[in-house]
Amino acid sequence: MSKPKPTRHAPGEVDAYLEAVPDDFRATLQQLREIITRVAPDCTQRVSYKIPIFRLKKDFVAISAAKKHIGLHTMSKAIPAAMKDELKAEGIWISGTTFHIKPGLDLPEALLEKALQARLAELEAG
Questions:
Q1: Does 6 map to a domain?
Q2: pTM
Q3: In the chain, N or C: fewer CB atoms in 10 Å?
């Protein structure tokens, strides 16, 4: 059995993932998905490693539902470290490369867009 290609565009897989999570998680995850696709409208979407992944030339970011929080996986060590204080002020904590967000939190869209733009810059820099 062959491994699915990471370049595939399978938004239906992401839809199915979102349908399987509790409502309060789904609303926040869907809002994150909308922010991500607004910042990177050409990204592909798929589920890999059991979580939704958004890809441009490389994997861009991912989102996930954990037991008590939602993850925005930046796939970057530098971005969370640089934004730690701003994120903390908005009720978002970090662990490694991941932003941890409480379900139902009023998302700070401008701050998340700033993080996503920084990730785009990283990908463009190579």
A1: no
A2: 0.94
A3: N
